[in-house]
Here is the input.
Amino acid sequence: MPEASEMKIFVLALVLAMLVPTTEIVARGRVPTPAPTPSGKVGRLIVQRAPNFGSDLSIRLSIDGKRAADIPRNQHYGGVLAAGRHVMTALALPNTESRRPTSFVLTIKPGKVYIFTAAWSSDRLVLQPSSFYVPTTRANQN
Here is the structure.
């Protein structure tokens, strides 16, 4: 009898030992990895919000006339754009005061990263060039 009991313990320990490395590999697969620096004829664009932008407002970002993302509080837009000229447009939502959208032209250079921070200048939404990025959750892109 003791031999059968010892055999069960041995088999159980063997099964557990085989499961541990598998669990570790699966867990490692879920760890997010940073996005690589753009390569080829593309550049990276990040649009983030100033901390005091407004908790009840989101930013609708359009690129070349196409809706790219709605950016709520504690989130940002991150995307890769082809090198060349692009028109960026941003609008605060809900637009209860009928403000006009902010637009500007951005020329993307290959391999460069462009960071803008959405902020208020008086009562106008502006996208200010930034030299730093504050990590937040990536907004759902359209």
